Structures are given as C-alpha cells and as structure tokens.
Amino acid sequence: MDHPLTDLSTVQRPIAEANGLPNAHYVDPAVFNEERQAVLFNNWSGLAVAADVPEIGDAVPLTFLDMPLLIVRDKQNSVRVFQNTCRHRGMILVDTPRKIEGAIRCPYHSWCYSTDGRLVSTPHVGGPGRNTHEGIDRALLGLVEIRSHIWMDVIWINVSGTALPFEEANADLLARWAEFDKPLYHGGADSRFQLTVNCNWKLAVENYCESYHLPWVHPGLNSYSRLEDHYHIEQPRQYSGQGTLVYRQLKDDEGRSFPDFDGLSDKWDTAAEYITAYPNVLLGVHRDHAFAIILVPETPERTTENIHLYYARPDTDTDLRARNTEQWEEVFKEDVFVVEGMQRGRHAVAFDGGRFSPAMDGPTHLFHDWVATQIETHRATARAAE
Amino acid sequence: MSALDTALIAAHAAGDGPALVRLYTQAADAAEPTDIDAACFFLTHAYVFALEQDHPEVATIRARLVAHGREPGAQSSFSPS
Question: Does residue B36 register a pLDDT over 80?
Fold first, then answer.
C-alpha cells in the first residue's frame, strides 16, 4: 500500500528546533485524504451542534468530509448521528432538513427506519405484498450509527469507532472547564453565522491557538487586552489555546450585561479562555457567554466555519445578543486574510513548514505535533497490516 | 382508470400522506374478498405511509398484514417510536 510520503520528523522536534507541517498537508489531496482518516475520523471531531435539532423528530442531513450523515433527535430526545444511507441500495434517506413524524422512509423502495435507527419496514422484500424474507433480518439492518457524544452542545463524532470514550479522551479539558458544564442556551438565529475561507482547516486552528497575532491582526483589542494580558494553554497531545486575564463584558446603553453562568469561581470575573479541542473545534468561554466554531474541511484549500454563540439563560436581550454576534463576526473576519494568506504561502515550493517562536507559538506547535503524531500512528498501523 | 386510481395519483402528486393511507386502505378493502395478495400489496403501501406519518391507523393496518403472514408479529420490530 502506498502512503503519502511526508517527512514529519522535524515537526516533532522541540519547538525551538521544529518546523511546521510540510506544504503537502495543506494542498495535496492525497494527504488531505490521509488526514481525513488519521486525524478526523480516528478522533472525536466536531460535526454540528445539538441546537441544530432542537425538537424531537428534527432531522438534518449534512456532508462531512464527503460522508453523508444524518443528525436526528429521536423520540426519546437523544441526538443520534447516522450514515444517511439506506441499508438496501445505499440511497440517501433525507436530503433536506425536516421533521420526522414517524419513521424515516427511504424514497427509493420505502424501507422504513425508526428515529433510533431500527429497520421497521421492508415492503415487498419477499415479493409483492410480502414484507419479510428469511434472507433479510431486520434486526441486523438498522441504520449505521456513528459514535457520537454531546459536550458544550457540540455533537462530536468518532467515525472509526476506535477512539477512547469522549470523556476519557478529553478528560483534562472537561476538568479544566468543569465550571461550564451546565446548560448552555443557544442564542438562536441571530447567534449563528458561517464563514467560508479559502484555506486548509488546520490553518484556522493554528491561528486560533496563539495570541501572538492579536496586536497585529486585531488592533482593536490593544486598548484593553494587550499581548501581555494573555497566557498560553498547553496540554501536549490533547488541546491547546490561549487565555486572557482582562475579559471585559459587553454592556448596553444602560450598562446592562449578559447574566453570568451560575457558580463560576472568581478567576472568571476577568478571565476568558480560547481552546482548540483537537482536531477541529474552536471553543471560547467567558463568564457570560461561550462559543463554538466547528471547522468543516471541504477541500484541502477550503473550509467552512460554523459559529454558534451560547448564553447562561434562554432569554437574553436581543439587541445585546446581536451586538455580541456582530463583534465576534468582526474579529473572526479579521483573521480571514491571515489564514488565506498562509494558504497561498503553502504553494511556495521552498517553504519548509516555517519556524515557531519558542516563546509565543507553543500552543500552535502543540497542534502540529499532535497532528503529526496522529499521522505517524496511522502510517505505522497501515505498515503493520501489510 | 378508476376513480380510486385517479385519487391515488393525485395524493402521490400532492404528497398527501393521510390521503395515501386512506386510499390504499380502501384499495385493500376492495381487493381482500377475492385477492389476498393484491390486498396485502395495497395494505403494505398504506402501512408504509402510516409509519412515515405516525398515523393513528398504523397498528390496525399492521395487524391485518400480520394476520395474513406478511409482517412479523413481534411488536418491538415495528414501532417507529
């Protein structure tokens, strides 16, 4: 079996000696496909948010890395993720978001599935008007369910089924943010937006992880959030990001702010943290709101960012919410020229992955190191199987 | 073409689920005295559209198919909820 040959040895050196991932990891379709399995399918990737299916029976089809998936809130109020394909001839089951009143009926030969994935009807499978056949065991032909988990309202999926349980794989992050493990209320239609950027998904992660760029790319933050007010968040082989010590709440004209999450410790009076839950979810927490950015890799050089903002109460002020969304959208758009510029830079054939500031780029290097580790593990497994 | 055929085609075109359940059940009722296979064909269609809608007649239609040996009897194998 052939494997894309990229040398990752320099990536995994100590930061002062390390290079970033080679260009091929940003532009080569073969490496993109390798990372699809090694990095995204073999780990817990963010897919969507539970708020996308708020009511029982809600079904949303989507494509993740070319894979047709279906998110359903079943009759027991559990969010499930299935392959969006009939077990009969592989037909796409649901092609637009809709409410499932009873069963999911395949539009081709009308095999029907319950919202929890059981195959409940196989019309004419044994001939006209004969709906059973000894060769068709319905109990073995339910929808293929993708392993999933909800945390911070994000629907995380492990397509390979081989990752550690979510709570184990992310135990340190869950412990770090245990104070935010409480109901998060999606702000609704005004609190979600989408950006499509012409870059590999990893560049969005790399930029998000570090505060080094803030004074240059987000100069508006300098007035109250200076570079020295930020700290690195570094958990090798798990997650990384940055925090600030001077988070300032948004206030309306009467000086009112969003309500705080209950029970937060004093640290959060002025702190906020921004962490990438590897591989593809960018999370932010503050005393009064949180956000999740799910990076959906579309091609090696194009990524969709789905952004969702959450609050401590379901009834926050509409105008203030809109201002908060606008403020974050402006910040995230300020990053677009950077990630797209780095993407174009990956076509410079002599670029060697670049170097890292040993003082400022630790969180970004940790992400490179983690990606390299996932790929090396995947390659080693493939070689062992040959 | 019978009036029932015409009504069925219209119901399909309109995506009218309740009408599809009702009309296919009518077709089954008409066929049942003389042709069990034809009746079960129509009942199967009524059943599928009833399942899709969580229609109140789903259990009744299913019971008729079970009685003719066209659906398995175990309750747990059909409930869409």
Answer: yes
pLDDT score for A220: 77
Cα–Cα distance between A283 and A292 in angstroms, integer?
Answer: 5
In this model, does residue B77 exceed pLDDT 90? no
Say if residue B22's pLDDT is above 70.
Answer: yes
Q: Closest Cα to residue A355, out of A19, A7, A25, A12?
A: A19
Q: Residue A128: which pLDDT band, with cuts at 50, 70 and 90?
A: very high
Domain that holds residue A301: 15-44+170-375
B10 to chain A, closest Cα gap in Å:
18
CA distance B60 to chain A (A): 15
**Do the chains contact at B78 and A132, CB–CB below 8 Å?**
no
| Distance (Å) of CA A217 to CA A103, A212, A214, A291 | 50, 9, 5, 20
Q: Which residue of B44, B70, B79 is in closest CB contact with A114?
A: B79
Among B60, B59, B47, B56, CA closest to B20: B47
Residues in Cβ contact with A273 at an 8 Å cutoff, skipping those fewer than 6 apart: A177, A233, A241, A242, A243, A244, A284, A285
- Domain assignment present for residue A386? The answer is no
- Beta carbons of B44 and A124 less than 8 Å apart: yes
User: Is A100 inside a domain boundary?
Assistant: yes
How many domains is chain B partitioned into structurally?
1
Lowest mean pLDDT among A109-113, B49-53, B75-79: B75-79
ipTM: 0.93
With beta carbons under 8 A apart, name residues in chain B contacting A129: 36-44, 70
CB A89 within 8 Å of CB A133: no
Q: Cα separation of A357 and A243, whole Å? A: 18
Helix (H) or strand (E) holding A175: helix A171-176
Please tell me which of the candidates B38, B44, B53 has its beta carbon nearest to residue A131.
B44
Residues A33 and A51 in one domain: no
**CA distance linking residue A34 with residue A285, whole number of Å:** 32
- What is the spatial distance between Cα A28 and Cα A379, in angstroms, rounded to a whole number? 17
Cis-peptide, bond into residue A22, ω within 30° of zero: no
**Closest by CA position to A240, among listed A270, A264, A207, A263:** A207
pLDDT digits (tens, 9 = 90+) for A46-101: 999 999 999 999 999 999 999 999 999 999 999 999 999 999 999 999 999 999 99
Contact B39 A129 (CB under 8 A): yes
Domain carrying residue B35: 3-77
Structure-token pair, residue A168: 């184990």
Top residue of B12, B35, B44, B68 to mutate, by most chain A CBs within 10 Å, is B44
